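Honest question from a wet-lab person: if I give you the sequences of every part of a complex, can you actually get the arrangement of the whole thing, not just the pieces? Trying it with mine:
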Amino acid sequence: MAAQNLVAQKPDVIVADPLLNIGPAKQIMDLCRSMSLWPMTFGLACCAIEMMAVGMARWDIARFGAEVFRPSPRQSDLMIVAGTVTKKMAPAVVRLYEQMPAPRWVMALGNCAISGGPFKFKDQYGIMEGVDHLIPVDVYVPGCPPRPEGLLEGLFLLQEKIAGKRFWPNAPLDGPFEEGK
Amino acid sequence: MTQNPLLEQVAGDFYTNNFAKTAKEGSLILNLGPQHPSTHGVLRVVVEMDGEYILRAEPVLGYLHRMHEKMAEVKTAAQFIPNMGRVDYGHALGWNWAFVGAVEKLAGIEVPERAEYVRTITCELNRLASHLLWWGAYLLDLGAFTPIMYAFDDREKILDILQIPTGSRLTYSYFRVGGVAQDLNEDCIASIREFIPWMRSRLPMYKDLVSDNIILRKRIEGVGVIEPEACRRYGATGPVIRGSGVAYDVRRSDPYSVYPKLDFEIPTSELKDARGRYDVRIAEFEQSLRIIEQCLDMMPEGDVLVKGAPKPAWKAPKGEAYFAVEGARGKIGVYLVSDGGKTLYRTKLRAPGFCNLSLFAEVSQGTILADAVAILGSLDLIIPEIDR
Amino acid sequence: MDALLKGLAVDYLAACDFAKTGKTWQAFLPAASLVKAAQRLLAADYFLEDISALDCAEGYVVTYHFAHFEKPGRIALRVVAPHEAPNVPSIAHVFHGAEWHERETRDFHGVQFEGNPNFIPLLMDPDMADCFPLRKDPKSRIKVRDVLEAGQVLCCAPGFGLMTPDAPAEAQAPAGDKAPA
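Yes, you can. This is the full assembly:
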């Protein structure tokens, strides 16, 4: 089947060394990158609606510098895989990833993108059981679909991964969780 | 259209090549999607262009085919309800209802009266949320960014309300065979009562800001005219056919639940174009609010789940059943065949968007590409529902 | 419904209880009279709701559901296609929307619709278009009369044993061009 072949032919991700490889300069670059991520408008399924909600007034991803959703992969550096990746869609996902300029990051949003989620069952014939079979993933955000807070937390983790430091306070772990905060 | 053999090898996949076989010389084959901001997910449309004009279009589906009908063979009827929240995330409760309705018909289960009202209220709230999502996204497609901010602001208020009984924001699996999972509590009812006048107060603003806006009118008036006769050939339903002047609504034509007791109108438009469909959906906001208001007043006390409601391992009796409800996009139908075994023998989902989209190839012929986007949006597509 | 199908070869026609199964009429047709029946339904302003196939021991029961914009009720036309050669004439030139429904049925069950103008995979990936996921294992197939509602029989062509409860064995094969009662 096509999709299996695709996994076998998974492209080696080649990222050339940065032109400017001086420690402090790189740190500044990384800081800038982490605070101005440009996600791609790439909605696949249910999670895409939550991704839209994050961009809108209440959750307002602009607070964290990632509101510039770009329809073109050429202009974006964060791919949020929001939804189920089917075998039919898989080649397009790989192509989109390859079209993004480096450095680039991938967030697997929702259970479908992580592992196939609810659509993984014994005789399934149509979906990829996790987008990490196709492209390297930096952050996994579980949920079906994840709440907008989840997506924001995923973004924080990615920023931490890029810049090496967490900029936002941790969510309280002992609750009670209030809505909309 | 590719005469160059070398080009033929590299350009296009199965669908493009199949489509290009009958292309005219000198025309251009263009792929819209599967990743395209105006296709709301992963719809792909292959179009043959002459300059800016569309000669022929063919939607290509299946990029989000999630095997719901196959999964129904693996899960019991009660376990299948979460799938219904994911078929159409815009109007999840409509699908919930269609499925549990079909199972209830099959097994002859009566639903308590309060549960019918709870279902109606939540389903109509969900319809409002779905129309708001469409409204915002459609205008975004047409190049207006601001309305979606307003739409999502209002939509979040509905999600807050629905979150109380259902526990989720988007992919509800709230209905049960024989009722609903839990009753609407006082908080929830109070916030619905608060929400209705507030939403009403927003509608004139929507009208001033968007509906009467000359830019929008120029963009959608006269675009994508669909005759009622074409709707019949393609089986289009919902706002698409009501926008063509046919007052067909399952809530009235094959009434179910408490809808016969309620006083509401079926908005139609004689314009038949994208504007007509737009007007119908905008008018439906008010009708849904009316329905919710009446239901809140008429709702009796009582249980919301029938006694002895099916457990997860419950086996549906032998037989077949077809149940249809009016979703935000049209007629949602679920056809079940059960052989009395652990799982249902066959589950067929009739998605309204599937039939509505099949119209697109005919309607888009001869329009310019930018208008095709206006037509696609006016059909209100949710791709997972079409691909299932 | 009687009047609609008058003069056509009909194998089985029954009135059903709408409250119980959600349809008012059902008719088994020989493949030859399907297109004519569809034309008459179109002339009588019916619209096609959906097409689905059911994998039974006697063959694929292809069901066409029709409804009306003004009148309540639902009509189910059924055609039985044998497992060995599941061929059914296409009604895509009568109800244009049928084109997609037929392609979908082909994807799931492998029923061939002769005369469909664009008979390529619709939902399935073209690379794995021949896996027909909803086909059943021959052992677990059920009999038509066990699950479908018999209804109030108005006419039944001689030799049509699909719905008769005490029919001897599986003497099936759709009963050809029998005269209607």
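Two things worth pointing out. Chain B touches chain A at residues 34-37, 40-42, 62-67, 70-71, 74, 82-83, 86, 89-90, 133, 137, 148-149, 152-153, 155-156, 160, 163, 169-171, 383-384 (CB under 8 Å). The beta strands of chain B are 28-32, 44-50, 53-60, 175-176, 179-180, 319-326, 331-338, 346-350.
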